[in-house]
Structures are given as C-alpha cells and as structure tokens.
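Hey, resending since the last one bounced:
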Amino acid sequence: MKRYLHAALIFVSLMLILNSLVWLRSNNLYKAHLNLHMVTFESTYKGIINTFQLVSQTIAEEILQKEDVTQLIHRIISTRGDERNHVRGLLYRKLSPIYERISQHSIHQIHFHFPDNRSMLRFMPRTEPTMIWPPFVHRWLLPTKSDAKFTVMKVASLPTASVMSIPSPIKEWR
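The structure tokens again:
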C-alpha cells in the first residue's frame, strides 16, 4: 500500500512539475509574440507620424512661408480692428483653396497664432455641432518669421483616432 501511495505522490509531483514547465514555456512564448507585434505596431505608428510631420513641414516651407503669406501675417499682427479682420479675410481667401486640397489627405487643421499665443486664424473641417473634433490630436508647431517677430503656426493636426484605426497586428490567440 505504501508503494502505491509513494508512486502516486511521485506521479502527482512529476505532473505538477511538467505542468509548471509547460505553463512557463507557453507564457514566455506569448510574451515574445506580443512583444514582436508591439514592436511592429510601434514602428508602423512612428512611420505614420513621421510621414505626417514631413508633410506638415513641407506645407509650411512650400506654401505657408512664402513672401506674400508672411506679409499678410505681419499685417495681421501690426493692425487692429476692422483692418485686421480684413487682412485675416485676405489670408483666409489666399489659403482656403490650398487647405481644401490638403484636407482631403488627412491634414485636418492649419492654425496661425499671434506672438502672445492667441489664435489668429484657424482652418479646420466643418463638423456637426454635437461632434467633438478631434478628441486627441498630434500637432506639429512650426515657427514662421515675419520682420523679426515670430508667429507660431500649427501646421497640421492628425487625429489620434485615425492613427489608432490602423488594424492592429496584435491578435488574441490564447
């Protein structure tokens, strides 16, 4: 009887040890699998963000920092009242067709600021009043120089939701 009890105890101990080893190996494989997919996802995410940053910088350098645009910005800064609003309208009419074209390619906002960080002019999509736009945004702030005064331009905004809507490579397999 003692032999059977002793054999059963050895068998149960071996099974527990083998189960623990299998569980540890499975857990390590799962973590390695998740880590591999997270690295892939992070590199994809960073690639998208870097691409939009380059696009924003290109838009700023090729369109928004042209002499006629910077002159209009300087006029807005240096004027007051109705004249300022008139010059804002000129800047809006100058950049509106460009914004309409680039907004079709996920660039959702162009925003100019006064040197004291007040909003000067903002281009953004028209949304329904009940819709909050966008809840989380990646922004690139690029300075523009206008007669020794600096005006910050928020050149592009990319809603985080659009980046996060990329199909995740992480799939539950357990």
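The helical segments are 2-64, 67-78, 81-102, 160-164.

Sorry for the duplicate.
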